[in-house]
Design brief:
The protein is an alpha/beta fold. The chain has one domain (about 5-345): 3-Layer(aba) Sandwich (Rossmann fold). Helix content is about 30%, strand content about 25%. The chain is built from 12 helices and 15 strands. The protein has helices at about 5-10, 70, 80-85, 120-140, 155-165, 190, 205, 215-220, 230-240, 260-265, 295-305, 330-340, and strands at about 20-25, 25-35, 40-50, 55, 55-60, 90-95, 145-150, 170-175, 195, 195-200, 210-215, 250-255, 280-285, 310-315, 345-350. The strands form 4 sheets. A 9-stranded mixed beta sheet has the order 1-2-3-6-5-7-8-13-14, sandwiched between helices. Helix 1 (about 5-10) runs parallel beside helix 9 (about 230-240). It is globular.
Length: about 350
């Protein structure tokens, strides 16, 4: 399939899947929970009914642009990182923070991009995570284990949540997330910051929410030999949650500016949360070629995790921000790091 066909398919919304489906032993069930302020939050439960080990529940959170299915569960052959984690024995819960993927959009995103507050700040994401974790605990009574991992801003939100609710997360994987430390050195500073106020979003350019086209999503991979089946699903899953996608030319989906606004503070000397309150076992996992997190972010976070049950930094050499998406030897390095960390919670299932 050509990229043009991918864009057309995504625009027409013809590639969505039903809410309950299974591939071999992988079982998916979709549901929603209600956040504290009434917004419906999408969750997918995914597990391998034939897994030989039980690593406990794991919460996966979307990144700062595409929703959680595009972030973690691209259902092209061999492309879903969530499936690999499920086969290793985790019961996955994938959630979209408000304004992303299949979750409800806040009021700020149902109006014009300008003249309204920046949509979806970290404190609002924490409300959504709280509602989902409460439901995970309800579905897994007497289960003390819960691993949390997000992609970039997803990890930032989980870190904020874990600092406020330290008793609920047993293992935290902070993957390619910013945190804090000395200001400067962020690769995206010029693109997103107010030129006169480096810690503030350039609101006059970006507004309350931003727009992404299929070209924005897939253009960088056009000539890199990326599997067309993966591109097809990645684009379609990214676009499917926004009912207004086809109203613009070219087709585009809305996503909140809040994560970028919060990250600008974090990389300019203003922390969003204090990691010293986190009590989980923590793996700080960073791609050496990452453009979102900085080396100083992970070193500062590591120094601040003074109350953590344990804290470890792993940097994967020679890989990008997107390493977990594609089934490559580099992705296996990512999976090996994650599963080595969660091996301590693994129990053998009795047949």
């Amino acid at each position: 399939m050509t990229l043009a066909q991918v864009i057309l398919a995504a625009t027409l919304g013809c590639l969505t899947l039903p809410s309950t489906h299974a591939y071999a032993e992988i079982v998916r069930r979709d549901f929603t929970v209600t956040s504290q302020d009434g917004l419906q939050i999408f969750v997918r439960e995914l597990h391998d009914s034939d897994a030989h080990f039980d690593r406990g529940p794991m919460l996966l959170v979307n990144g700062g642009r595409s929703g959680v299915l595009a972030s973690w569960d691209v259902d092209a052959p061999s492309s879903s990182a969530a499936e690999e984690l499920a086969r290793a024995g985790h019961r996955l819960y994938l959630m979209d923070v408000r304004g992303f993927g299949r979750s409800a959009f806040p009021q700020e995103m149902n109006e014009g991009r300008f003249g309204v507050p920046v949509a979806v700040r970290s404190n609002e994401a924490v409300r959504d995570i709280t509602a989902v974790v409460d439901e995970i605990k309800r579905r897994n009574p007497d289960e003390p284990r819960l691993t949390g991992m997000g992609w970039a801003t997803g990890s930032q939100w989980l870190g904020h949540y874990a600092s406020l609710h330290p008793e609920t997360i047993s293992h935290l994987i902070y993957y390619n997330g910013a945190y804090g430390g000395p200001a400067g050195g962020w690769r995206l500073q010029a693109e997103f910051a107010d030129p006169e106020h480096p810690a503030e979003l350039n609101y006059s350019r970006h507004g309350s929410y931003r727009l992404a086209t299929a070209e924005d999503l897939a253009g960088r991979w056009r000539n890199e030999g990326i599997d067309p089946a993966f591109l097809e699903r990645y684009v379609a899953l990214s676009m499917e949650g926004d009912p207004t996608t086809g109203e613009r030319e070219p087709a585009s989906f809305r996503f909140p500016s809040g994560p970028t606004a919060d990250t600008l503070k974090m990389v300019n000397g203003r922390q969003i949360f204090d990691a010293s309150f986190i009590r989980a076992h923590v793996l700080i996992l960073r791609s050496a070629g990452d453009f979102w997190s900085r080396p100083t972010d992970v070193q500062t976070l590591l120094a601040h995790l003074t109350s953590a049950a344990s804290a470890k930094l792993v940097e994967i050499p020679g890989v990008s921000h997107y390493v977990h998406l594609q089934p490559t030897p580099d992705r296996q390095k990512f999976l090996d790091a994650v599963l080595s960390f969660t091996a301590s919670v693994m129990r053998e299932r009795q047949s």
